[in-house]
Design brief:
With 93 residues, the protein is of the alpha+beta class. It has helices at residues 20-29, 49-73, 80-91, and strands spanning 10-13, 34-38, 41-46. The protein folds into 2 domains: 1-47, YefM-like fold, CATH 3.40.1620; 48-93, no CATH class. The chain has a 3-stranded mixed beta sheet with strand order 1-2-3, with no helix packed on it. It has 3 helices and 3 strands.
Length: 93
């Protein structure tokens, strides 16, 4: 990808789903989801399993970061040295 290049989303009509091999190839070649329209309106989004798993992982990470930021803002923090000392004592490290 060229730096600064805008990637346009792939949008295909639902009737094109008949060619499953072509759709599968597009999903695996694309780093973005493919949008499916029905009667000119957005209807579905498809992507490769690899892309789906990556997005689910990122969603989980962002959710945990959001929760951690909330806890930090509420003052729910522990001293790192104290926490490590307790872990070492607990597990005999």
């Amino acid at each position: 990808m060229v730096k600064g290049m805008i990637i346009m989303p792939q949008i295909i009509p639902i009737r094109d789903l008949k060619n499953t091999s072509d759709i599968s190839q597009k999903c695996h070649a694309s780093q973005e989801p493919i949008f499916i329209t029905k009667n000119g309106y957005g209807d579905m989004v498809i992507m490769s399993m690899e892309m789906y798993e990556k997005n689910m992982f990122l969603s989980t990470v962002y959710g945990k970061l959001e929760e951690a930021e909330k806890q930090f803002a509420e003052g729910k923090v522990l001293d790192g040295d104290v926490s490590l000392k307790k872990i070492r004592e607990k597990y005999g490290l």
